[in-house]
C-alpha cells in the first residue's frame, strides 16, 4: 500500500520528492457503547484496516488535499489563513480541523502541505474513518513540524477538533483507541479519568467479523447529539438525589434505588442503558481475563438488546444483521458497534462458522433490506506510524 499511495501522490501532485507515507488504524468497539460521554468504560481495539496518508510540506500557506476514496472531488484547495469549516470543503474539514486545533493549543502550523489520503475503512460505517483521519493528521503534523505531543494528546486534539470545528459532540473513545492501539489487545478505558489498561484478546479458534450495513449515516445529523442531551438532563435530575458527577458512577442497584428521580420515561431508558452498559463492559473485560469467551459473547448480545430497546439507536438494518447472526451455530456474540443508526455490527465467530455466517447473514439481510451488506474478518492492530 505504501508504494501505491506514493505513486498516486506523484501522479496527483507532480512528483513525490520529499513526501512521507503514514498509517493510522480504524477501530471497533467490542462492548461499551454510548458510555464514553457518560463517564463510563469502553473496550475498543485498533484494527489492521485504516487510513493511509502521504504528506509533504510546501513553502507557502496553501493546503492541497486529495482522497483516493473521493477521486471525483479532485484536489480540494484551502489555506492556513482560512481554517474554517465549509460544507463544500467536504472531508477536508477533518484534517483542517486538526490543523486549527493544533493552533488553538499553541502549536501553529507554519507552512502549507500537500496531503493525499486513502482509507480502506468503509466510509460512514461506524469504524471511525473520521477519527482515523484526525489522528493520522495529528501524527503527520507532529512528525513534519516536530510538535512535542504524546499519542494521548493526539487523541485529545482529535476529539477537540471534532467537537469544536466539526460540531460533533463525540466522546474520547474513537480517537483514543486509534492513537493508543496495541496489536492483539483491546483497551479497557475509563472515560471519566482516562485511566486505561491493555487487555489481551485471545480468541482461540474464533475471529472478529464486522458486518457493514451499508446504510450511510453522518454523526452530526443523526440523533447522536439528542441522546447525549437526554443523558445530561437525566444526570442533572439524578444529581438532586445522588452525589454523582457522571452516570458511570452508578451500578445497577444504585440506579434502581433512585427510581422516580428522572422525570421522563424516555430519559429513564437512556440513563438505564448508560449505567447497565458500563457494568456490562466491566464484567466483559473480567470474563476475557478469565478466558470465559462464551460469557463475553452473552454480554455482547445483552448490549445490543439494550441499545435497541433502551437507547433506541439500532434501526432495522443493524437489528437484522444481529438477529440473523444469533441464529447461527458458532456465533459467540453479536452486537451493533459505533453510534448506531446504520454503520456496523461486530460479531465473534468460530473459525469453522465464518463462511456460513457471511453467506447466511448476507443472504437474509439482502432479502429483507433490499441491498447487500459487506463483511470483514479483521485483526487487532497497532496505533499510528510512519510507513
Please give the largest β-sheet: 6 strands, mixed
Percent in strands = 15-25%
CATH second-level architecture of the domain at 2-201: 2-Layer Sandwich
**Rg value:** 21 Å
- What distance separates the N and C termini? 9 Å
Helix and strand content put the structural class at: alpha+beta
Topology readout:
Layout: H1 2-13, E1 20-29, E2 41-42, E3 44-57, E4 62-67, E5 76-79, H2 93-104, E6 113-119, H3 129-145, H4 151-164, H5 173-179, E7 185-190, E8 195-200, E9 206-212, H6 224-238, H7 252-257, H8 265-289, H9 293-309, H10 315-326, E10 331-337, E11 344-350, H11 354-369, E12 374-378, E13 385-386
Parallel strand pairs: 4-6
Antiparallel strand pairs: 1-3, 1-13, 2-7, 3-6, 4-5, 7-8, 9-11, 9-12, 10-11
Helix pairs in contact: 2-3, 2-4, 3-4, 3-5, 4-5, 6-8, 8-9, 10-11
Q: Main traits of this protein?
A:
387 residues; alpha+beta; Ribosomal Protein S5, domain 2; six-stranded mixed β-sheet; four-stranded antiparallel β-sheet; 11 helices; globular
Tell me what the structure shows.
The chain is of the alpha+beta class. The chain has a domain at 2-201: Ribosomal Protein S5, domain 2 (2-Layer Sandwich). Helices cover 40% and strands 21% of the residues.
Amino acid at each position: 500500500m505504501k508504494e501505491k499511495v506514493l505513486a498516486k501522490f506523484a501522479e496527483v501532485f507532480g512528483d513525490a520528492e520529499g513526501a512521507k507515507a503514514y498509517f493510522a488504524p480504524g477501530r471497533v468497539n467490542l462492548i461499551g457503547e454510548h458510555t464514553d460521554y457518560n463517564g463510563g468504560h469502553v473496550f475498543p481495539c485498533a484494527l489492521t484496516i485504516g487510513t493511509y496518508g502521504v504528506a509533504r510540506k510546501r513553502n507557502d500557506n496553501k493546503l492541497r488535499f486529495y482522497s483516493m476514496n473521493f477521486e471525483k472531488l479532485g484536489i480540494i484547495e484551502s489555506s492556513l489563513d482560512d481554517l474554517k469549516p465549509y460544507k463544500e470543503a467536504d472531508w477536508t474539514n477533518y484534517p483542517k480541523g486538526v490543523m486549527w486545533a493544533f493552533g488553538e493549543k499553541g502549536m501553529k502550523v507554519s507552512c502549507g502541505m500537500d496531503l493525499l489520503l486513502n482509507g480502506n475503512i468503509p466510509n460512514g460505517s461506524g469504524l471511525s474513518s473520521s477519527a482515523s483521519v484526525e489522528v493520522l493528521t495529528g501524527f503527520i503534523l507532529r512528525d513534519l513540524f516536530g510538535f512535542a505531543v504524546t499519542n494521548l494528546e493526539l487523541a485529545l486534539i482529535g476529539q477537540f477538533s471534532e467537537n469544536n470545528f466539526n460540531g460533533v459532540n463525540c466522546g474520547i473513545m474513537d480517537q483514543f483507541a486509534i492513537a493508543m492501539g496495541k496489536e492483539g489487545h483491546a483497551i479497557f478505558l475509563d472515560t471519566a479519568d482516562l485511566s486505561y489498561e491493555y487487555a489481551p484478546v485471545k480468541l482461540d479458534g474464533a475471529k472478529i467479523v464486522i458486518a457493514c450495513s451499508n446504510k450511510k449515516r453522518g454523526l452530526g445529523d443523526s440523533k447522536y447529539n439528542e441522546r447525549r442531551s437526554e443523558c445530561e438532563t437525566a444526570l442533572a435530575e439524578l444529581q438532586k438525589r445522588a452525589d454523582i458527577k457522571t452516570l458511570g458512577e452508578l451500578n445497577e442497584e444504585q440506579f434502581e434505588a433512585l427510581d422516580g428521580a428522572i422525570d421522563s420515561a424516555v430519559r429513564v431508558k437512556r440513563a438505564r442503558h448508560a449505567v447497565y452498559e458500563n457494568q456490562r463492559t466491566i464484567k466483559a473485560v473480567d470474563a476475557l481475563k478469565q478466558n470465559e469467551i462464551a460469557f463475553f459473547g452473552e454480554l455482547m448480545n445483552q448490549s445490543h438488546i439494550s441499545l435497541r430497546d433502551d437507547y433506541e439507536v439500532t434501526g432495522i438494518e443493524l437489528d437484522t444483521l444481529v438477529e440473523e447472526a444469533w441464529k447461527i451455530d458458532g456465533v459467540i456474540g453479536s452486537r451493533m458497534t459505533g453510534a448506531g443508526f446504520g454503520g456496523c455490527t461486530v460479531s465473534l465467530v468460530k473459525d469453522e462458522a465464518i463462511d456460513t455466517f457471511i453467506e447466511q447473514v448476507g443472504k437474509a439481510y439482502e432479502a429483507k433490506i433490499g441491498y447487500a451488506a459487506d463483511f470483514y474478518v479483521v485483526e487487532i492492530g497497532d496505533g499510528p506510524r510512519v510507513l
